[in-house]
Amino acid sequence: MSENTVIQEIKCMLSIEDALHQYLGIKPDRKSNAKSLNIKCPFHNDRSPSFTIWPQSNTWKCWAGCGHGDVINLVSKIHSFSNEDAILLLRKQLLIERKWPATVYTTWINNRKLLTGFKETKKQIVFMLLEIRSLFKIVLKQVTSFEDIDLLGDVYHTIPLIEKYLEELESREIEMQIATVKHLLPFLNKWRENCE
Ligand SMILES: [Zn+2]
């Protein structure tokens, strides 16, 4: 089944109202033939109902700026997932692909749990790598001779390494992300000590 078909299927099977009910326990009260309905936005401290749902197109919008879109990006926003992860979750929950083996699903759920635990750590590591990279780039701009290059050999080698780590941290493979975070954690701790 192609990714596009899956997306269409999800949009047909799950309404914005059902998603709000299922994942947040919110039950929008719809007058039978209203074209749209407004509720208090679940994503910000909303005093007036600024969250509009259009059941016909199965779309939503928060007029205070929390976002807008379809049922998939609504679910990804509710869970703080990427759209890809929301699609994975929904295709399983809506039984779109009955053949998705239970073990694959369990592994995926476990990895997600692991991931939320180190999401913050990963963010800090990415921040650290970006800081180091920009520092090194400043240093490299001051290189004027081959002797300088000799002295700065380590810096030269470190920049591609940082690029590699950043790539791994953005990888779709959760295992890869975890391995990289584990590998860089001691550096992060040292970096923190130095910053204090
Ligand atoms: Zn909002």
From TrEMBL:
State the name under which the record lists this protein: Zinc finger CHC2-type domain-containing protein
Name all Zinc finger CHC2-type domain ranges. 41-91
Task: Give a GO biological-process term.
Answer: DNA replication, synthesis of primer
Which lineage do the record's taxonomy fields give for this organism?
Bacteria, Bacillati, Bacillota, Bacilli, Bacillales
SMART domains annotated for this entry?
ZnF_CHCC
Q: Report whether Metal-binding shows up as a keyword of the record.
A: yes
Q: Which domain of life is it from?
A: Bacteria
Q: Which UniProt keywords apply?
A: Metal-binding, Zinc, Zinc-finger
Q: Which InterPro entries match?
A: DNA_primase_Znf_CHC2 (IPR036977), DnaG_primase (IPR050219), Znf_CHC2 (IPR002694)
Drop me one GO molecular function for this one. DNA-directed RNA polymerase activity
Q: Name one GO cellular component term.
A: cytoplasm
Q: Using the record, list the residue span of the signal peptide; answer none if the entry has no such feature.
A: none
Q: Keyword Metal-binding: yes or no?
A: yes
